[in-house]
Amino acid sequence: MNARTETAVIQTALQHASDHHLSNAHLDALEEETIFILREVAAAFERPALLFSGGKDSLVMLKCAEKAFGAGRIPYPLLMIDTGHNFPEVTDFRDLRAKELGAELIVRNVEDSMKRGTVRLAHPGESRNVHQSVTLLEAIEEFRFDALIGGARRDEEKARAKERIFSHRDSFGQWQPKAQRPELWTLFNTRLQPGEHFRVFPISNWTELDVWQYIARENIALPSIYYTHRREVVDRRGLLVPVTELTPPREGETVQVRDVRFRTVGDITCTCPVDSLAASADDIVIETLAAEVSERGATRMDDKTSDASMEKRKKDGYF
What we know:
Blueprint: H1 3-18, H2 20-44, E1 48-51, H3 56-69, E2 78-82, H4 88-101, E3 105-109, H5 110-116, H6 132-143, E4 147-149, H7 158-161, E5 166-169, E6 197-200, H8 208-218, E7 229-236, E8 239-242, E9 256-261, E10 274-275, H9 281-290, H10 295-299, H11 301-305, H12 310-315
Helix pairs in contact: 1-9, 2-3, 8-9
């Protein structure tokens, strides 16, 4: 960051602090919309579930669900599709948070789909991330879910920007972007045919900055890897790849120990940290104001290297 950019960021941050009341009004409006959508799902569907990974976006949704229904009274189970390659800090936090809330937590594993033969990897080192779609569709069939609430936001990726808040999926779990139902004046068409379901995205209109402002305001606890920590990484095509048993350094790569944090968390094989000394949500708000690359663009190997676009993956049943 050059001196001019740094000065602009500081000035923006100071202005942001002085506009605290206006910021709260903005967050209040987003929270109110999210609570309305969460209640609408509870009223319109018989067997909904809330996708809960233990990540920041799902924790924001969970906080709004607490406000919508009360602690211990969330009317739908929490569901996670586990690749088996998730960061232990995140899955441990997921279990702890579900227990604190007294919420039902359902975990279904990609490894079980592999044992059934419904998921087959092209090679042992292939990321399992994209294969979550199969396990998710199997869970939908098992529990007959008619709505799945997810934490996707429109600012994350261009395909997600095209998707409705109530996103209709056909009997194959597929999204048809050219056949989306209109959502004028916050009126949602929730009609379903047998075998169909909806994906619902209550925080579609939030940005990464909104999420971190809300986390700071509500003092929402997060897994530790969202904040600065020392970690071994290698620089690979501009991404900081964490050094783990699943992602060892390649020949010729130099292992470095750097101060990093994760902007988003997912499968270890495709999620990278960024350089950061941010130790609090307020610190991250300031960093986010200066960010020039989206969180997925800066941290997801699968988005950079996969032959399948996000839109195609969503058509195939991806989150």
